[in-house]
Amino acid sequence: MVTSFHLEIVSVDEMLHAGAVHFAVLPGEAGALGVLPGHEPLVTRLRAGMIRFQPVEGGEQALFVAGGVLDIERDRVTVLADHAMRDAASDAERAEAARRFADQTVAEQKHRFDYGAAEREFSEDLSRFFALVVAEQRRSGH
Question: Residues in domain ATP synthase F1 complex delta/epsilon subunit N-terminal (predicted)?
Answer without folding.
Answer: 5-84
